[in-house]
Write a structure and sequence with these properties.
2 copies of one chain form a homodimer. By secondary structure, chain A is α+β, with helices and mostly antiparallel strands. Helix content of chain A is about 40%, strand content about 20%.
Chain lengths: ~450, ~450
Amino acid sequence: MGIDTALSEISSLLGNRLSRAKVDLAHHGQSEAWFPPSPPDAVAYPESTEEVSQLVRICHAHGVPVIGWGAGTSLEGHALAVRGGVVVDFSHMNNIVAINDADLDAVVQPGITREELNHELRTTGLFFPIDPGANASLGGMTSTRASGTTAVRYGTMRDNVLGLEVVLADGRVIHTGTRARKSSAGYDLTGLFVGAEGTLGLITQITLRLVAQPETILSGICRFSKFNDAVDAVIATIQMGIPMARIEFVDATMAKAFNDYAGASFPEDPHLMVEFHGSDAGVKDDSARFAEIIADFNGDGFEVAQKPEDRTALWAMRHNGYYAALALRPGAKALTTDVCVPISRLAEAVEETRAEIDESFLEGPILGHVGDGNFHACLLFEPDRPEEMAEVKRLSRNMAQRALRLGGTITGEHGIGMGKTDLMEAEHGAAWDVMGDLKRALDPDGIMNPGKLVRGN
Amino acid sequence: MGIDTALSEISSLLGNRLSRAKVDLAHHGQSEAWFPPSPPDAVAYPESTEEVSQLVRICHAHGVPVIGWGAGTSLEGHALAVRGGVVVDFSHMNNIVAINDADLDAVVQPGITREELNHELRTTGLFFPIDPGANASLGGMTSTRASGTTAVRYGTMRDNVLGLEVVLADGRVIHTGTRARKSSAGYDLTGLFVGAEGTLGLITQITLRLVAQPETILSGICRFSKFNDAVDAVIATIQMGIPMARIEFVDATMAKAFNDYAGASFPEDPHLMVEFHGSDAGVKDDSARFAEIIADFNGDGFEVAQKPEDRTALWAMRHNGYYAALALRPGAKALTTDVCVPISRLAEAVEETRAEIDESFLEGPILGHVGDGNFHACLLFEPDRPEEMAEVKRLSRNMAQRALRLGGTITGEHGIGMGKTDLMEAEHGAAWDVMGDLKRALDPDGIMNPGKLVRGN
């Protein structure tokens, strides 16, 4: 068998850093989400690009699937070995290769997490701003084009990766991009691999943009009776050019979840949570203008958390939204939807979704990155109850189709993985065929993360 | 001959909007730059995506080259028909399809210029911020991944195109991206076509991000004795997170050129020209902090042009830099170099370049987008003097190789076209082969803008 020969050769390469231990296969065969377990044939722990390249050459020669693994926080089953093969766990490749203060960039290996990176940056006056909530690996964040609460100000991984080192499906190592801030030198290969979910190659090094830690950070929260008013306030804020670093929406159900889980005492109404980054004068001016806007739109109780500990508490609560939602129904799993629409259609998209979930027999709080038009419903269900599984799939599919009808996308930040391939044609039409053409050009044997993103992959 | 049959079929499709008039062929056979004329076999003026699709289908069937043409402002000969074929002039496809105020986006046809777009936007409170100086078409700007003076604040075309309609090499029409602000739904095809210089398809529609017109704009200029000090002041400004909308460097030779051409009276020293966008309070605070920084770095005479007319005069002068440079040597052409390096290496890159030009028998003022590490030397020469042609090519090649040695790129914003393909391998190594793989996947017969960007194309 190809797989046995391949594993024997990889074993010679990596020694006991190729694991076939049951516990290891089981750990790498599950995900944060509801997908059934799918253990690989083996788990590899390479320590260098050269080892990754040799491993991929072996897999290429024997037609064995290769699946990258970062921190295992994907919500779409990206790292599941649905056709067996070798999971490449990057936890041993978690170094910072360089921090270039003057250039505001850092070169890192894919296994480092964003919290580890920011910890190392804490004395430099710089930070890496992308914050998906989970303490994901930078390799995983790059491969899923992650974003999160700060994208409204700092963009997504697409905007913050300057260059990559990639091991291609045949084991060749290429370098994309440079440390220059911009380039017009040919096709944007960096952008092609960001968000490719490991289907075109394995990322072994990442050059990231950093930004200056703001002089002043100011966070706050305010309440609205009607969701529409909250969204209209956000649109007005964006149109006035007031720079927000975060602007998050939680619905009434989510406010209740926070009260139950985090001991908060919010009115069970829609809320906006907001943050401004800038100079002292700039932030004061921004927040004062924002306060005027929310008053115009019937928002009230704008409370400012200027002390770092209050701010940390506010965002920790927001980041634990997934767990707070799960706690609404002990023992349940969540299918976390992830659509993104033009902001002018956001109120409509959320209202229709809320109404549909209210009519359903399942519960699902809604929260989102409202400045981007991106929102999630955490649909709570028990996967071994077929009628519940069918219902969350129905609700999720309806949300995606609604997003497309409103000019949006089936995923704002979580990616396709194995959860959304059946929606790709609806979003992209003939452009999905083009993705298939690119896949076949770079991975003709289909060994890189099969079963994900591309048709027939 | 394939070309004759193809032109006959296209003529049936477009009638007198397929031109073989000598004056038309000659106009579309030249460029802003120094390249020898290269007229196409015909010039087509389609009026719809459907016409472009049919035209490309005909060219595909007969193996005839297809070259897109926007406003003809490329400095790297992008639109020259070096292997003959049909130039597709998009001047009849210059409509605004939609302006979506609430979503801060606009959908446009490729032939509209950025000044035309901003004129139409003037009453909306929004604008399209990318400013390469020339009044380029949006299609051309997209295809070259253009940027310019405001990229330090607003990014490049890469960051400001949300989606595209593209006619592929076989005539299929695809749509990439959505009007949502972000997406993780598969490969970033939008990013692949932005900067592809028409070698993968023809762009027939573009969805652009817009931004709010700032409440306050403040511009200024200051003088430095030493270039190093100017660059160090910029690095300090970026590291403190002071948001600049523009920060431009001109060297002493360029200051002299402005004095001669625009009747200015600058000391013949290096200068920084800067602009801040924001709220009234924010801009005042930003410029005050910037003034402190430049004082720390021995800058002097920070003069603020707060009145719109003074500001317009300042940037009009900067935008006419190319013509001011040309006027230093009447009758000469300019080879405008375009490298971009990490900002920590910028002082070194400019100083070495300045010294090398000073040692040469040719003149070449330097100016650049210093916040991005991007700068240009306008090398003045007469193309019919072989020793001058050889010398500008030597200087230009040395600049590119210097940029690569310092971790940068051979082109920050002008693109590859026919001027820089021989430097692509030096910048990209094996990644250039991958670009070739992608090109062959999407255009196996090589009809889209042959002779540009890709090896053997």
